[in-house]
UniProtKB/TrEMBL annotation:
It comes from Notothenia coriiceps (black rockcod). Coiled coil: none annotated. The gene is LOC104958415. GO terms for molecular function: ubiquitin-protein transferase activity; zinc ion binding. This is Ligand of Numb protein X 2-like. Transmembrane segments: none annotated. Residues 151-198 are annotated as: Disordered. The keyword Zinc applies.
Length: 215
C-alpha cells in the first residue's frame, strides 16, 4: 500500500483565487499542462499509482508490457523518449490502450476532500468532485459570481453609454442641418403667415365672383 499525501501546493483558502485561474475540474491552481491535483484521504494501492507522477492514476493507460500510467504523464514522457519508463522496452503511445472499466471505477471511488477546505470540508468520491465544485461548493460559487459581475456593466456605465448615444445622435442631427439648412423648413410661397390681403384685392375678388354668377 502506498500512502498518497494530500497535494497542498495548489490548494489554499479563497485568498488569491480567481475564476480565470482555478481549474474547473479539480478546483486547484495548476498550469494547464499539468495533471489535476486531488487531496486524497486514504491509502491507495500501489497498483493504482502512476509510476511517473507517483499519484493515483488519471485516465489510466496500459502498455503492451503490462504497466499503467496516467495518459497525461505517459504522453508527455513519450514526446521525448521511445520506451516504457519502468522496463525501458520500446514503446509508442498508439500501442497503449485505456485501462479496464474495473480499474477506472476503482480510481473514481477514491475519497478526496474539497480543495477549499477553509470554507468547505466535504469529502466525496473523486468522480463527484467536479459536480460538487460547480453545484455546491461556496468558494467556487462565489468566484463564479464575482467573475460574472465583472463582465456585467454597472448602472453608471449603462447610463454613460446612453448619454453618449444621445449626444452622438444630437451631433449628427446638427451636422445634417448645417449641411442642408433648408431641411425641415417649409417651401417658400406655400405658407406666409405675415401676408394679409388688401381691401382692393378683396373688392376685386368680390367683383369677379359676381360677374361669374351673372354669366
Amino acid at each position: 500500500m502506498a500512502t498518497t499525501e494530500a497535494k497542498v501546493a495548489g490548494s489554499s483558502s479563497a485568498a488569491g483565487l480567481s475564476w480565470a485561474r482555478v481549474c474547473k475540474e479539480c478546483g486547484q491552481l495548476h498550469e494547464g499542462s499539468d495533471c489535476h491535483l486531488y487531496e486524497y484521504q486514504d491509502e491507495v494501492d500501489d497498483e493504482l499509482v502512476c509510476h511517473i507522477c507517483l499519484q493515483p492514476l488519471l485516465r489510466p493507460m496500459d502498455t503492451p508490457c503490462g504497466h499503467t500510467y496516467c495518459f497525461h504523464c505517459l504522453s508527455n514522457f513519450l514526446k521525448e523518449q521511445d520506451f516504457c519508463p519502468v522496463d525501458r522496452q520500446r514503446l509508442q503511445l498508439h500501442q497503449c490502450r485505456p485501462s479496464s472499466l474495473l480499474v477506472r471505477n476503482l480510481l473514481d471511488k477514491l475519497t478526496v476532500m474539497c480543495p477549499h477546505s477553509a470554507e468547505c470540508q466535504l469529502k466525496m468520491q473523486r468522480c463527484e468532485l467536479q459536480p460538487h465544485l460547480h453545484n455546491r461548493c461556496p468558494v467556487f460559487r462565489r468566484l463564479r459570481e464575482e467573475a460574472e459581475k465583472r463582465k456585467r456593466p454597472s448602472w453608471n456605465e449603462l447610463k454613460g453609454r446612453k448619454s453618449d448615444g444621445e449626444s452622438s445622435a444630437d451631433a449628427k442631427h446638427s451636422a445634417t442641418l448645417s449641411q442642408n439648412p433648408s431641411r425641415d423648413q417649409p417651401e417658400p410661397g406655400l405658407i406666409n403667415p405675415a401676408y394679409e390681403e388688401s381691401e382692393d384685392e378683396i373688392n376685386y375678388k368680390v367683383e369677379v365672383l359676381s360677374a361669374c354668377q351673372c354669366v
